[in-house]
Amino acid sequence: MVRNREKVSMRWILLLCISNFVLGMLFINRIWPSPELSNQIILRQRQEQELKLISEEHTLKQKPVQDMDIEGELYNTHEAIQSLDKAISTLQMGQNATQSAQEIAGLGSSLYISSSASRKGLTRKKAFVVIGINTAFSSRKRRDSVRETWMPQGESLQQLEREKGIVIRFMIGHSVTSNSILDRAIDSEESHHNDFLRLDHIEGYHELSAKTKIFFSTAVAKWDAEFYVKVDDDVHVNLGMLVATLARHRLKPRVYIGCMKSGPVLAQKNVKYHEPEYWKFGEEGNRYFLHATGQIYAISRELATYIEVNQPILHKYANEDVSLGAWFIGLEVEHINERNMCCGTPPDCEQKAETGNACIASFDWSCSGICKSVEKIKNVHARCGEGDGAVWSALFLVGNEADE
């Protein structure tokens, strides 16, 4: 009888210890400051329980088995340790989940704070659309040809911004050398026309993806617009058709508007539009996901803000239009395939204009813009233009008026 009482006592003592340990873990988990220390203590306690089990099993093997209580006790002990393992795993997973959530929250907070800090003390102007015309240091003649055709100048440009909420700027960065002759030339041009948006970006053909990110981030920080548009300086645009088309989509929160395409991923080196990271898109010969062609596209406020907030972690591919499409591929975004944004030059755009369906934008696919645009854009404007008064007659509300 004494021996049986000792066995019963040992079993209950062991189960009591395990129960106290699990309860202690649930309580201590709330106050332990160090996950590493917690894991060490959990491991040590588990080892102690296993040592007790091994010691008991060794003792039982030396004694004759006289009844089924010993086997039952051993089974119960194994069950208790398995329950302990499950409890430990649950606690550890809870700690890891909490730590991961804190890290993610910290990242999100830092990105949000950096975004807000960039706007601190800056009053953003309300606008309907901000149009950034991508240009380069060597493109002075292209800029002048745009000014002479579809882009208003001087007081008309300012009036368009004040009365219609349509902001148009040539966007350009700076040269590698600070205050170089290239930068001074842009400064001089800006003092005369007042139609530039200067970006914190080093100009270069292979840096277009970076320039796109910086343009949207800069534009969002400066203007609170409903849409943001990027267009090249060798493309003809009918502003009235552009704003009328955007207005049809203004109630949609996340829209990406342009001529959608899915071109081949070019793995061959030394060819135009070569993609060094072609291997990310699968087997050789694959095509890109659907994205807007780079000559002109528009995105809504939420998407431009998304770019601004997440700019440091948005990956840049070799081609700027592919990069933009990649940034939206995992988001709830509506892709608007607007074919009026990629009309050809005459006779294509002219025929459409004659039917009362003027194009939003016209260019030559073979040149990724109007071929020899400085010489030809005036002809395109004369034959395919909607008329200078079209943009002024476009009906839509801007800023606070649209919210009422």
Produce the secondary structure layout.
Layout: H1 2-28, H2 35-62, H3 68-119, E1 125-134, H4 140-147, H5 155-164, E2 166-174, H6 181-193, E3 196-202, H7 208-222, E4 223-232, E5 236-237, H8 239-247, E6 255-261, E7 291-300, H9 301-310, H10 320-328, E8 334-337, H11 348-354, E9 361-362, H12 373-384, H13 390-393, H14 400-403
Parallel strand pairs: 1-2, 1-4, 2-3, 6-8
Antiparallel strand pairs: 4-7, 5-9, 6-7
Helix pairs in contact: 1-3, 2-3, 4-12, 7-9, 7-10
Task: Describe this protein with a few key phrases.
single chain; two-stranded antiparallel ribbon; 404 residues; 51% helix; disordered C terminus; globular; 9 strands; 14 helices; 7-stranded mixed beta sheet
Molecular shape = globular
Helix content: 40-55%
- The beta-strand count equals 9
Main sheet specs: 7 strands, mixed
Uncertain segments: 1-7, 27-39, 50-68, 77-118, 399-404
Q: Structural class, judged by helices and strands?
A: alpha/beta
Work out the helix count: 14
The fraction of residues in strands falls at 15-25%
- N-to-C CA distance: 89 Å
